[in-house]
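Quick start: read one record
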Amino acid sequence: MTDTTQYRKALAERSSYVENVLVHRMVASLAGELWRRDPTMPLHIFNSEVDDSGFDLVLGCGTKLRYIQVKQVHTKGAASKFSVRLDFTRMPGSCVVVVVHTEDELMVDHFLFYGGAVHEPMPSVEDNKASILPGKRDIEGNRKTRPHYRDVKRKMFRGPLTTAGLLDALFGVAHEGQTEQHAC
């Protein structure tokens, strides 16, 4: 049995691995929910090879595209803000999805969502506080900022969301019983 300290250490040291596992779980859950709603509607999945534009993943449903920056935090995590690249926030369809997961099994507990309508950029974060470079200080000991990044407070995110709620937030899809013919 592994204790909490070991899990937390591994989460910090293997954050890329953890995020990759969680992205796969999120995409599989979203594809399954869309399939349940309309098995003829595909979820198009595009991975970002280089993370220099601020997004990790692009999902498409019908004519709608979402550029997604994925963040992750475990259920007992205390993250109060998430750093977002300014250029990314101005892209139509840009959004941030936080995958909240268990620390011991990397199972998705719920999602948090920050974004606007599917064809609009996310709400402006221009006036938010500039993000701090972790562990970096200037010659006088002051913490260095990341001028092209802004912090978005956790309380600004919608959620907790289920997979169905996240699909709705991403694409504004039709719920059961509505008269729309397609889910996206």
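The first strand starts at residue 43 and ends at 47.
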